[in-house]
Amino acid sequence: MKRRSVGILWMVFFLILFILNSCTPKRVSKGVEHPLIYREGPAVILVLPPMNRTFDVEVKELYAATIAEPLSLCGYYVLPIEVTSDILKMEGVYDTELLLNTSPQKFKTYFGADAVLYTTIDHWNVMDMMVAATVEGKPVYHSFFLMDIQFMLKSTSSGKTLWKCHREVEIDMDKRMSFLAQIIFAILMDDREVFRTKYYIDYAMEANQIALETLLDGKYHPIYGMDRNAEFVDKKKIEK
Amino acid sequence: MRKGKLLLTGVVVLPLLFTMGCAAKPKMYYWENYSQSLYDFKKNPSDKTLLEHKQALLKVIEVSQQHQTRVPPGVCCEYAYILMKEGNNKEAMKYLAMEEQAYPESRPFVVRLKNKIDAQKK
User: Does A112 touch chain B (CB under 8 A)?
Assistant: First the structure.
């Protein structure tokens, strides 16, 4: 009888251990997960306009304005997005969807790019949650920046996919403010839009940076060539 | 006496070490207000927003030079492209050369833009 209950206890213990283990996101190393990018070592990246699956037409502009900085901080030479987009438009290419069947090798000839970054945006907006109301009845909001983005980096030499990543990023936009500060803010600010416009770009850039963290560092990064074993959490949803 | 000296050294050296430890790491790039000015220009294209974006690009170049760091990739090229569109080809060539010097791998793209300027001249 005693032996039986000990057996059951062990089973429960292992079951809990198994559940806990399967709930913990696994950590993977950059070099193991994306060996091709390490092998080819692209330096020049051409960023194509994103494929926008949201209903917001401004998302393309927001993305174009906020991707160059975080991508450059990963150590890559990012071709000037404004210039390359303009050239593509002159060639009659307004949507990246039109380029999906184009061989990536063509971008090597035309722009001197080593790799092309294709981006799909499924979600990109700010969600306001009313958390309280001031004495005057003004709502106190808590805002979140939400982004669902997919990256695919293709080599212009081999045509192979060097790196890909799908991330849902959620950033608490009021994390720097206490609840009391939020109430004061709600009393003083008539238009929350002003707050949004002021910080929207910063949050969009932070979200891009988070989404790019699984990318291996390029030649201009101080730890270039040394981050092969650097680990990242293999998790789709990132909350900050 | 010796104890006093040691104490004095500790008072001077420790805060110094602490300050050194806290000293900000040099930045990789100085992007300044680039994203915001670019977004403003794209959202409301006008002479005013274009001028503000041009000023933002120039500031990125100036601040990077002040800190003796590399100008972020593409910035000189983008500034040169705006100058090209305005017909200021001589200045544009100067900034294209700066881009090529900072990033040798930009050469194929820079050459393409230079050829565009040459074609405009003819």
Answer: yes
In angstroms, the separation between the Cα of residue A149 and the nearest Cα of chain B is 19
Instruction: Give phi and psi for A174, each to the nearest 5.
Output: -105, 15
Q: Where are the domains of chain B?
A: 26-121
The partner residue sitting opposite A205, judged by closest CB among B35, B81, B113, is: B35
Q: Which residues of B touch A224 (CB under 8 A)?
A: none
Expressed in percent and rounded to 5, the helix, strand and coil fractions of chain B are 75, 0, 25
Q: Spelled out in words, what is the top-level CATH class assigned to the domain A27-123+148-166+201-224? A: alpha beta
Is B105 within 8 Å of A44 when comparing Cβ atoms?
A: yes
A47–chain B Cβ distance below 8 A for any pair:
no
Nearest to A83 among B31, B70, B78 (CB): B78
Digit-coded pLDDT (tens) for A23-68? 566 777 777 778 898 889 999 999 999 999 998 888 999 999 999 9
Say whether A123 sits in a helix, a strand or coil.
strand
A80-134 pLDDT, tens digit each: 999 999 999 888 887 888 888 888 999 999 999 999 999 999 998 887 777 676 6
ipTM of the complex: 0.81
CB contact under 8 A, B107 and A80: no
Q: Report the CATH number of the B26-121 domain.
A: 1.25.40
Q: Can you tell me the mean pLDDT for A172-182?
A: 65
Q: Which of A52, A61, A71 to mutate to test the interface with B (most CBs of B within 10 A)?
A: A61
Per-residue burial over B48-81, b if 16 or more Cβ lie within 10 Å, else e, is: ebbebbbebbebbbebbeeeeebbbbbbbbbbbb
The residue extents of the domains of chain A are: 27-123+148-166+201-224
